[in-house]
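Notes, Module 5: Reading structure tokens.

Key idea: the token line is not a picture. It is a compressed description, and you learn to read it the same way you learned to read a sequence, by spotting repeated patterns. We will look at two proteins. The first is printed below with its tokens.
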Amino acid sequence: MQVLRCITARSRSHQYKFQKQWNQIYKCNLSTSCPEIKVSKSPVLIDEEVNIRVSGLKQGQKITIQTYMKEGDKTFGSCAHFTADCQGTVDTCRDQSQGGTFTGVEPMGLFWSARPTPGVKPGRLLKADIMSPYDVTIAVQDDFKEFDSLPWSDNLPCLTSCQLQRSYVTSGVQRFPIKINELQGTFFTPPGPGPFPAVLDMFGFSGGIIELRSALLASHGFASLTLGYVDLPGLPQREHHLDFNYFLKAFDWLASHPKVDPNRLGGVATCVGSGYQQFIASRRPAVKCLVMINGIARPFGSKQTIEGEVVDTITFQLDKVKIVDGFVSFREMFQPQDVTPTCPGWRHGAKILAIQCLDDQSINPFNLDNYKKHIPDEFKLNFSSITYPGAGHMLEPPYTPRCLASYNKISKMYLLWGGDEKHHSVAQKDSWQRIIFFLDQNLRKTNVNRTEAVTGL
């Protein structure tokens, strides 16, 4: 009897161990046949990093992770090649991409390397409804697949997929379309009652109203008015007919808004918008700081007298444009003597941060050196600059696709902006951090060290 019990016990023990081992094998086989993909967080702000992790793969399995998103008539996508580790996992924050639209360890490479999908014309990715997120599909394909051979559709076939929402606005940000007399723009306010530090936000001659930067600035605590000034109903179509009083009225409106602290006002501008911001800062002592991104310091338009002072201007010299790779480059349009600053934005003590990309195919980087030469010694400590090799003109917030070229409806040309994807992505991330720091130091904090506030370091 004791022997029988012993044999029975051993049999049951063996059966239990066998069943346990079988369950483990079954689970392993089940997991390898059903890969799973997860993101660290969703929704996220456009400038937040996201970790993507794929599990349930076979050890050493080769996969392609692709992203796909649609905005209006444009579809953008990216892809990267990974090999699963001994646990059957891939982690984009840890693992190296071996091919695709980027290579190396790039946690956000799947986002900054996105490009128009096959058959879609080159262009700039702009959110039509800034208050809604981008819906990004992240999918896993077996084996290494090249960008042009991947499926690009809303219900693309894959091993597994998930959705990620990326937004320019955090919860509580409010958007107010502005149309007061001729003044047109969009005003964004951060969550809360205010009053807030505020910036006037301006882009170049792209036309319409571009809201992405102001929305993101509001998500970081700054009220922001993004100003339209050409190619809108009731406004000029070209720079020749601009009345510079319009820009002063926009700034005065912002300064008087009940949700804005009139003692904490600044500006952010890209391209020719920088010249108009220089003009405002030269006439309004309330401007505490100004960020110029790939800008030119002299306003475009016709010569005019504003508030008793003559404003010298600059106009486009289209006879000097060049065709590069089938696109129009404005890089060589101006020589140093053409853009001597005539609107001294520094004269009331505004701190200025100038950002210049060295592969800018629209604004020649020499404009930055030319600008520096004209700053009087007593204001030089208020000025700082940074340059980015390999980056192009269209410097956007982090982890957004580089725009190499796009159609400009004002000039009616396909314009070349420049920049290689990797260097441009580095510049977008670093410059955005510096912009936020610079605005923080000059519009939010008090008793700030002058050098620290200017350099953003």
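Here is the second protein, with the sequence above and the tokens below, as before.
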Amino acid sequence: MNSVTQIPRLLVARCQLFLAGERGASMVEYALLIGLIAMVALISVTLFGDALGDKNSGIAGSIMSATS
């Protein structure tokens, strides 16, 4: 066997062993949790972004008028 075909097979075998163990399972769970949090944050910004921007602009305007 030459090394060009041996390296990918070795890499796949190592990944399978890693994912079969407890550490691999924990890593996958954390990755899924981070993905879920990122998705919720993205959806929240998409849905409420304009309203929050308008609210912040109103607050900034109130502060500017109060200080001048």
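Summary for the second protein:
- The two ends are 79 Å apart (CA to CA).
- Helices lie at 3-20, 22-67.
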